[in-house]
Amino acid sequence: AQSVTQPDIHITVSEGASLELRCNYSYGATPYLFWYVQSPGQGLQLLLKYFSGDTLVQGIKGFEAEFKRSQSSFNLRKPSVHWSDAAEYFCAVGSLNNNDMRFGAGTRLTVKP
Amino acid sequence: EADIYQTPRYLVIGTGKKITLECSQTMGHDKMYWYQQDPGMELHLIHYSYGVNSTEKGDLSSESTVSRIRTEHFPLTLESARPSHTSQYLCASSERQGAGGTQYFGPGTRLLVL
Q1: Which residues of A have a CB under 8 Å from any CB of B?
Q2: pLDDT tens, position by position, A60-95
Q3: Which residues of A touch B6 (CB under 8 A)?
Q4: Contacts with B113 (C-beta within 8 Å, 6 or more apart), sequence order
Q5: Which of B9, B98, B104 lies nearest to residue A98, judging by beta carbons?
Q6: CA–CA separation, A67 and B98 (whole Å)
Q7: Side-chain-facing half-sphere of B78: CA atoms under 13 Å
Q8: In angstroms, what separates the C-alpha of B15 from chain A's closest C-alpha?
Q9: CA–CA dist A12, A21 (Å, integer)
Q10: Deepest of A59, A105, A110, B81, by most Cβ within 10 A of its Cβ?
């Protein structure tokens, strides 16, 4: 079965600084990879997804992620963080044939003024 | 923008009460899910459904039950709530079989059992 690891529980960055959130997955076949964001008291909103093709994926709110098969990683990046980006970020892995999606434990992002 | 709704958003209830958490989606998705989420933890799948009259248990054991009588509606019921059921419950739906289909989430129900 697939699994996801988000090594960083909590990250703090200054507003305007760049951001990279790490995600490592374990899955034997080609994975489907997702990043979701959750604001306090809200459900999960899809930021971006990778199914196939170009390994650099663009998402909403200026986020992008790069699929690196050799490193089993799908790190999320943003060149300049805004205060409104403070939230919890979840990486997830699924596959075409499995019946469920595995989520990481999440990374909480704090943005300093 | 996904159209998936959950009610109530917040619920405080006493031990032993029966509760039903509602989830509805207007996207015509076949597959629906219930997840349990605790602070600092990954989401755990507790139930899912392929379509009408189909329900399956997820990888996390749960004392709750679900039903799927209509495509758009996937309620979750706890017959006798206990403090251990205190958590956030997230409903989601996707448009095709298998986890390759993107899942869209509702806003969640935060449950506190006293």
Answers
A1: 4, 9, 32, 34, 36, 41-46, 49, 51, 90, 94-106
A2: 999 999 999 999 999 999 999 999 999 999 999 987
A3: 43
A4: B13, B14, B15, B81, B82, B83, B84, B85, B86
A5: B98
A6: 21
A7: 23
A8: 24
A9: 11
A10: B81
**pLDDT string in tens for chain B (114-residue length):** 568 999 999 999 999 999 999 999 999 998 999 999 998 788 899 999 989 999 999 877 788 999 999 999 999 999 999 999 999 999 999 876 555 678 899 999 999 999
B62-71 LR contacts (CB < 8 Å, sep 24+): B62/B36, B64/B34, B66/B34, B68/B32, B71/B28, B71/B29, B71/B30
Non-local (6+) Cβ contacts of A30 within 8 A are: A52, A95
Q: Considering only CB atoms, which chain B residues are within 8 Å of A44?
A: 43, 90, 92, 105
If you measure CA to CA, which chain B residue comes closest to A108? B40
Q: Name the DSSP letter for residue B73.
A: B
CA triple A46-A51-A54, angle to 5 deg: 105
CB pairs under 8 A between A and B: 69
CB count, 10 Å around CB of B43?
A: 27
Extract the tokens encoding A41: 């008291």
